[in-house]
Amino acid sequence: MTEANGSGAPRLLFLHDADVLPGPLGSLRELAAEFDVEVPRHPGFGTDMDAAAADWDCVADLAQHYLHRLERDEGDAAGPLHLAGAGFGGWIALEMAVRRQRRFASLILVSPYGVKLFGRTEREFADILLLDPAEVVELGWADPAACHGLRMPGFPAHQDDAQNERAFADRAALARYAWKPFMHDPRLRRWLHILTIPTLVVAGGADRLVAPAHSSALADLIPGARYVEIPGAGHYPYLETPDAFRRAVTSFISDISANRKIGARQ
Amino acid sequence: MKCFHFSEMPYPYISPEAEEENRGLKYFMPNRYYDPARGYELYQRYLDEYELADELGLNLMVNEHHQSASTLHVSATLSAASVLARTRNGRVLVLGTPLPHRENPVRVAEEVAYLDSISAGRIDCGFVRGVQGETWPSNQNPAHNMDMFIEAHDLIKEAWTRHDVFSWEGRFYHYRYVSIWPRPYQQPHPPIWVSGTTRRLVEWTARHGYTLCNLLGTYDDTASSFRLYRKTAVDAGLPEPSPDNFAYLAFCHVAPTEEQARRSGEKLMWYLKQGRLRLGAASPPGYSSTTAAVAALRGKLGEVRKYSFERLVDEGIMLVGTPDTVAKQIQRLYEATGVGNLILMNQAGEMTSNEVRDSLCLFAREVLPAVAPIGRAWQDDDTSWRVDRDRGPVETVLASALS
Prior knowledge:
The complex is a heterodimer of chains A (266) and B (403). Helix content of chain A is 36%, strand content 12%. Chain A has a 7-stranded mixed β-sheet, sandwiched between helices. In chain A, strand 4, helix 3 and strand 5 form a beta-alpha-beta unit. In chain B, strand 2, helix 3 and strand 3 form a beta-alpha-beta unit. The longest helix of chain B is centred in the N-terminal third of the chain and has 20 residues.
């Protein structure tokens, strides 16, 4: 599923979060004017790979899948590719980057899960596998009334039974990948220090699913990473504040192109 | 009909405000509401009731739940050990150990073998998946619940029956050296019971010939579930299942008059209080099929909780009345479902120990003798559930039991 915008545009592979609708949404649609944007659906979340992936039980399986797909479809010699991921997708992107960072021109993470940073009794990821959809929206949006682009069991309320079954199946897939340790892999943190590709960490200032303090501390652990906090956005800045998100991404990528390197965090 | 006494051992002292604030009594209940001194008194009281039930000729059943004011049983095997030490006669049904929620199946095999050994084989060994909400205290992956249940069972059975050191490299469990001491007293192993309604689980239980237990189902749902079991067993080439292959758990209270029985019996409804668990808690991801999950979303899960007292009696879930009335209800239950084991939840919530003891004594004196012969000559009985007579549809039923 490629959003082609013509030829020769830089490519952006965007890995989706656990409860967003399929396809390029919000600012990903606008970014398609400048990038060749692809938003693949994760195996287990309603794809023709679901049956084959029924036994996959960790995010490393998804990282392996996407890396294999890149290698299979275009060989190692293909052109530059920006790797991005939001929330759960950000975790997958990090797992891919620590395995094969040289394949990617840059890494863009939006409030990613995946790395546990704080104490044993500090709950740094909201329990999205337990909370009601209304609670997820309340914690995940600066303005809950503006929520759009999400699908969860029983949400939106008018959703029919087939859509609810899909949403339950998405939740079951997330449980398979991320139940315990919850929404993180302890092995990931110990390899963050090897990352040398330009990295951007974006967080919404009002995100209470993954607090901005978490994303900021994560950026501190990635050498040279840039951290951008968008006020007025929650966990889904590409949906809630699409212009600000697009500016953060395009300015980051044009800085890379200009400098071929990113300075210390700013 | 074999009868078992059962109490969930609830902690009934939670204020309505605390219950409301915590969305019910289970799984997420802060233990600041627990008073250790009152807890001690409750344990002694409930164990005394088990002791009385045993003296009166009943069998006994224990279970476990976690982080809940609804029950103070924390380990079915620990409770069984306590009950065994207090009793001499009845069988002790461990229903059950929630296999997916126990980290170590070999330890379960050892514990049950120990219980069986110290009691010269008084143990019936139940294995359960654990109701949905148990996911949260144990933190075991609900998406793997059924597969973990089956692998843990396979490992336990191997540990009981293979009389040599073996290794186990499965999907969920890994041991390089297994050979448990003691072995079970009953050889090759204690009778195995399973409770549940999920189609895959019912079919699996039938093919193994284990006893299937339905908890608080309506007559119709229980009959449907048992029908699926019988057809599966016969299709697998096993003999036609007898009433002994089936068990049913109901509320029970008997008293000298209908009015008195109802007055006390209504207190059993405490157990069915709704609570306000989040959908995600009552139907954790991947525990059930997506169809069952949508049914839960539509409010079909644990529908029994919404029934009136009269409906609970009509559906066979509440066995309440004079001894004569209750004996007739049990006869009807047998005729509708072909069940041969009856687990009686004789206590719930604020029901006093005197109420429980009076009911137990009256039940033992007047109901037990009347219902004991039921089902003994099942092949001669004129019933609707025999495999060659039953034309009812084989349907999957939704869990009536309660998260």
